[in-house]
Prior knowledge:
The chain is an alpha/beta fold and 291 residues long.
Amino acid sequence: MWKAKIPLDDFLKKVGYCMPSKCWCCVQPDEESLQHLFFRSETAKTTWKYFLLRAGIVVEGVTLHQAITKYWTANVCLRLKPVMQALPSCVVWELWKRRNSMKYVDAVTTSRVIYQVSSNLQALVKVRKPGMDMVPHKWKDLLAMMENFTPKLKVTKFMWELPSAGWLKVNTDGASRGNPGRSSIGFCIRNENGNIVKSVGREIEETTNTVAEAKAMVKALRFCRFQQYSHVWLQTDSMLLKKIMDGIWKPPWIISEQVEEMMQLMNGAITQLLIFIGRATSWLIIWLIML
């Protein structure tokens, strides 16, 4: 829709197919066009007005693309951003479904379109905010609840434990500001007394959180192999890498090289290296601060 590539009558005319044009959504049919179907028809205007006015957005005298841009860039609280950015897609999709039903199956009322859009937004909020109880269906009530919502804080205490006698503990971490964006990796090695044996932290190329986590583990394993450490306890807070190393999940292609190298390092010269990877079990010793 954004690139005007939907096979409506106005698009078909542009590519050389001239035919009588009829909008299937209107009682008094008009020419079927992108702007008419999604923005100027009675159903489209009623639907957009229902959601726009309650969000405090005025779109008088603007085009469809400008109205959608207003939604995407609306000045709302952060928790409402995903909902506001998803709303135009929900509206356009339901209008498109209505057009096809009117043309090939049966009639769909305007109130049904509004109901379906509200249902989609309600489902989105339930997924994004699973801690919310009784997410309202009405758009106005949903906005009010999201604006006044105070998340319930869940605190879990984790303790960093000393490794066993003769063992070294390695904590790794990677982070990306922007995901993808400016990224850093780091690892810290401590002995059985808790004394630091080695600590490394540095910035890498712009990448994602997943890649940064994997590269931090590779860097730590390389160092352990170079130093010929034979008893190492490696901890990371990445659930993805834990599942991959346990053989439960397949690695995504973007870190396939890092995973392959980690397997080689574990099965090569440091055959006695033991890997214990736990989700959120590592006390972050290195804080990756990107200024």
